[in-house]
Design brief:
heterodimer; A: alpha/beta; Rossmann fold; 20% strand; B: 290 residues; MetI-like fold
Chain lengths: 327, 290
C-alpha cells in the first residue's frame, strides 16, 4: 500500500483565550491524504476546518501533534529544507478580494513565490507566469493589470495561478468558491479539477457546502467541534452515512427535484457548543438524537467495523450505523 | 536589482495620490496646499529679491517698517523681513528632517511590533510608553543638554520625540493588515517577514502615516521655535523664528514688529500644514469621512 503524501497525527491547536482558558479549535485530528486524490473537509463554521488548513501549510504552529509531508515531519525541518517543503504545499484563499494585494500588478502577485524561491531570471519567471495565466484561462495582457480590474471569478483564477506557479504537490483550498457568485462557482470547481488532472495535484478541499465537496472530492472527512467524526469515500459518505451528525448534514441539503417525495429531515437542536468548554466524551452528544450514557463517558474513536484499511469508511460514534438514514 | 524592480514602481503611490488630492474637491486641502506653496516660494525665492542679507546690519536699530525695510529693523539694525524669510528655510528644513527621521524610525518600530504580536510587541510598545511618559519639551531640553547644542543634535532630539506617534499608527495599521489574506498568502509563498513588511505592509499603511506626518511637522516646527526661544536650538546669528522672538522680548512693547513678523510666520505655516492634514484625513480616512 502506498504511503500517504500528507499525514496529520493527533494534530491539535489550542488558542489561549484569557483567564487561563483555551479554545480547543482543533483537537486530535488524524488524517491521511494520498497522492493524486482530493480530500474534502466539511463541517459548519467554527468546527476547526480552516484552522486545520492553516496548520497544514504552517500559518499556525500546532500545539500538539504532527504534520508529515512526503515522509518528513514539517515542524522538525528548518532553513532551506523547510522552505522547499513549503513551496510544495500551496494554499488557495477564500476571498479573492482580500487575498490579492490591491497595490500590486498581477505579474508581481503571481511571481511573488518564484521571487521568494529565487534562482530564476526575470525572463524565466515571466515565461512561467504567462504559461500559468493561460492555464487558468486569463489573457496574457493580464500581467500588467491590477486586481481591481478583474471580476471575482477572474481574481480567484489569479489566486489559483499564484498557488500553482510553484508547481506544488499539495494544494490546500480554503473555501475557494464560497466568496464567489453562484454563476462562477462551478467554473472555478471545473478549472481546479482540470488543473489537478493536468498537473497531477493533490487537493485538500475545505468547504461548508456538502454539495460542492461531493462534486470534487474522492474522499470526504466530516469535522465537528475540532474533531473528525466520519471519513470515507465520497459515495459512502453521501449514500450511507453512519454518523448521526453526517446524516443530519446530508438531510439539510435541499432537493432540487420538486416532484420527488419529501425526504426525512433531521433537525438538530441547539447551537454548536463552545470550543472553550466542549462536552465530555463524544462532542456531538449534546445535540445527538441517539445519545446514551456511554457517550458522555467515553470518547468515540475513529474506526471501521469491517476493515483495517486506513482508507476505509470510518466513524467516530459508539452507535455508528445504528440509526439508518438514507438520502 | 531585478529582484526589486518588478515591485518597486507602483504608480498608484505618492505622485498621483498627491496630484489627485490637490485637484480634488476638498477645500481644506486646496487652501492648505496653496498657502504652503506660497510660503515655500517666499522662503526659497525671498532671499534673492530682498537686497539685504539676514545678518547684514543695514540701518539704525529698532526702525519701524519703512520702504527701505518693509518690516523694520531689529536691535542690531538687521532687516527683519530678510531674517524672517531666511529663518523659514532653516526652520522648515530642521522640522522636515526631524519629521522624516521619526517617520522612518517610527514606521519600522511600529511595523515590527505589529507583525510580531506577543512578547516582541509588548517590549517595543512599553519602551514607547516610557518615552511618552516624559513631557516632550522637558525631554527635548534634557536630550539637547546631554548631547550639546548643534543643529544635527537638535534634529536627532526632535526625531526621537515624535517616534511614538508614528510607531503607534504603524502598529495598529499593521495589526489589521496581519489578518489580511494577501499578507498570509505571502507567508505561504515563502516570502521572508522583512520582505513581506516592505512589499505588502508598508505600501498599505502609507496613507495614515503621510497624514500623520503633516501634524508632526507642525509639532516639530513649534518645538524647534520653543527650543530656539530657550536658547537650546539653533545658535545665533543664524536666524530662526523662535530665536528672533526670544531676542526681542525685552523691546516687545517698543517694537512689536520684531515679534509679530516671526510669530505670524509660525502661525501661517502651522495653519497651512494643519489644514492640509485635516483635508487629507477627511479624504482618505474612512472612519472620519464616513
Amino acid at each position: 500500500m502506498t504511503e500517504p503524501l500528507l499525514t496529520l497525527r493527533d494534530l491539535t491547536k489550542h488558542f489561549p483565550s484569557g483567564a487561563g482558558k483555551v479554545v480547543q479549535a482543533v483537537d486530535g485530528v488524524n488524517l491521511d491524504v494520498y497522492e493524486g486524490e482530493t480530500l474534502g473537509l466539511v463541517g459548519e463554521s467554527g468546527c476547526g476546518k480552516s484552522t486545520t488548513a492553516h496548520l497544514i501549510v504552517g500559518l499556525h504552529q500546532a500545539s500538539r501533534g504532527k504534520v508529515i509531508f512526503a515522509g518528513e515531519d514539517v515542524a522538525a525541518l528548518s532553513g532551506r529544507a523547510r522552505q522547499s517543503i513549503r513551496h510544495q504545499m500551496q494554499y488557495i484563499f477564500q476571498d479573492p478580494n482580500d487575498s490579492l494585494d490591491p497595490r500590486m500588478r498581477v505579474r508581481s502577485i503571481i511571481g511573488e513565490g518564484l521571487v521568494a524561491r529565487g534562482g530564476m531570471s526575470r525572463a524565466e519567471r515571466d515565461a512561467l507566469i504567462r504559461e500559468m495565466l493561460e492555464k487558468v484561462g486569463l489573457p496574457s495582457d493580464a500581467m500588467e493589470r491590477f486586481p481591481h480590474e478583474f471580476s471575482g471569478g477572474q481574481r480567484q483564477r489569479i489566486g489559483i495561478a499564484r498557488a500553482l506557479v510553484l508547481r506544488p504537490r499539495l494544494v490546500v483550498a480554503d473555501e475557494p468558491i464560497s466568496a464567489l457568485d453562484v454563476s462562477v462557482q462551478s467554473q472555478i470547481l471545473n478549472l481546479m479539477g482540470d488543473l489537478r488532472r493536468e498537473l497531477g495535484l493533490t487537493y485538500v478541499f475545505v468547504a461548508h457546502n456538502l454539495a460542492a465537496v461531493g462534486y470534487v472530492s474522492d474522499r470526504i472527512a466530516v469535522m465537528y467541534l475540532g474533531r473528525v467524526v466520519e471519513i470515507g469515500e465520497t459515495a459512502d459518505i453521501l449514500n450511507t452515512p453512519r454518523h448521526p451528525y453526517t446524516q443530519a448534514l446530508l438531510s439539510a441539503i435541499p432537493d432540487p427535484d420538486i416532484g420527488a417525495a419529501k425526504k426525512a429531515r433531521i433537525v438538530l437542536q441547539g447551537d454548536i457548543p463552545s470550543p472553550i468548554d466542549p462536552p465530555s466524551g463524544c462532542r456531538f452528544r449534546t445535540r445527538c438524537p441517539m445519545a446514551q450514557q456511554i457517550c458522555s463517558e467515553q470518547v468515540p474513536m475513529l474506526g471501521s467495523h469491517t476493515s483495517q484499511d486506513r482508507r476505509a469508511h470510518q466513524t467516530a460514534c459508539h452507535f455508528a450505523g445504528a440509526m439508518s438514514w438514507a438520502p | 536589482m531585478s529582484e526589486r524592480s518588478d515591485t518597486a514602481w507602483r504608480p498608484e503611490l505618492f505622485p498621483r495620490f498627491l496630484i489627485r488630492a490637490f485637484l480634488g474637491q476638498n477645500v481644506l486641502i486646496r487652501i492648505g496646499g496653496v498657502m504652503l506653496v506660497a510660503l515655500l516660494a517666499l522662503a526659497l525665492g525671498g532671499p534673492f529679491v530682498i537686497p539685504h542679507g539676514p545678518t547684514d546690519m543695514v540701518a539704525m536699530s529698532l526702525q519701524p517698517p519703512s520702504a527701505a525695510n518693509l518690516l523694520g529693523t531689529d536691535l542690531l539694525g538687521r532687516d527683519v523681513l530678510a531674517r524672517t524669510l531666511d529663518a523659514a528655510r532653516t526652520s522648515l528644513t530642521v522640522a522636515f528632517c526631524a519629521m522624516a527621521l521619526s517617520l522612518m524610525a517610527g514606521a519600522a518600530w511600529g511595523m515590527i511590533a505589529g507583525y510580531n504580536v506577543g512578547s516582541v510587541d509588548l517590549v517595543l510598545m512599553r519602551v514607547l510608553d516610557v518615552l511618552q511618559a516624559f513631557p516632550p519639551l522637558l525631554l527635548a531640553v534634557a536630550l539637547v543638554a546631554m548631547l550639546g547644542t548643534s543643529t544635527p543634535n537638535l534634529v536627532f532630539t526632535m526625531s526621537i520625540l515624535f517616534v511614538p506617534q508614528f510607531a503607534r499608527i504603524a502598529r495598529s495599521a499593521t495589526l489589521l493588515l496581519r489578518r489580511r489574506q494577501f499578507v498570509l498568502a505571502a507567508e505561504v509563498l515563502g516570502v521572508s517577514p522583512l520582505r513581506n513588511l516592505l512589499t505588502h505592509v508598508l505600501p498599505n499603511i502609507s496613507t495614515p502615516l503621510i497624514i500623520e506626518s503633516t501634524s508632526v511637522i507642525t509639532a516639530a516646527l513649534l518645538t524647534e521655535s520653543a527650543l530656539s526661544f530657550l536658547g537650546m536650538g539653533i545658535q545665533p546669528p543664524t536666524p530662526t523664528w523662535g530665536g528672533m522672538i526670544a531676542e526681542s522680548t525685552s523691546v516687545m512693547t517698543r517694537a512689536p514688529w520684531l515679534v509679530l513678523a516671526p510669530g505670524s510666520a509660525i502661525i501661517l505655516v502651522v495653519l497651512a500644514f494643519l489644514l492640509l492634514g485635516d483635508g487629507l484625513r477627511d479624504k482618505f480616512d474612512p472612519k472620519v469621512s464616513g
